[in-house]
Write a structure and sequence with these properties.
single chain; 146 residues; mainly alpha
Length: 146
């Protein structure tokens, strides 16, 4: 099974960037759902979050790398195939496992929906990219006369 590493890297970066965009758009709702006080927000904003951002990027890369394997395994080679593969993995492994945070940890259903919504969009983008990005093949060697 040959993994297209440039596609994995780009899809991982896109997955990570989409997280920043998603939580930027929904930042007020996220803060509300987390029930953070203004004092907590000020304290968080004063600290460096480099470590958290690096871990989030690493997490995106791992997720996309695994997704690339499944895209290869399912032989998804077009947009629809990539979207379907990403959707089923999202439904089976992200939406279901994150539901436990609502059921057993008492997290708010809105926070669950916000978090899995990001993962759905980001996984669909990554799955589509991984399925349609064809790796470059080396040009065939010119026939040499014997």
């Amino acid at each position: 099974m040959k993994i297209n590493y440039p596609a994995v890297l780009v899809a991982g970066i896109l997955h990570w960037i989409l997280g920043a965009v998603w939580y930027g758009i929904f930042s007020n709702k996220f803060v509300e759902l987390m029930a953070w006080t203004p004092q907590q927000l000020t304290e968080m904003e004063s600290k460096s979050n480099t470590k958290e951002l690096a871990l989030a990027f690493l997490s995106s890369l791992v997720l996309v790398y695994v997704l690339a394997h499944v895209v290869q395994y399912t032989k998804a080679s077009n947009l629809v195939g990539g979207l379907q593969t990403a959707f089923w993995l999202w439904l089976g492994f992200i939406a279901t496992t994150q539901l436990a945070t609502v059921i057993f940890e008492g997290r708010k259903p809105g926070l669950y929906l916000l978090n899995i919504g990001y993962q759905l969009i980001a996984c669909l983008v990554a799955g589509a990219l991984l399925a349609i990005w064809k790796p470059r093949t080396a040009p065939a060697a010119a026939s040499q006369p014997a």
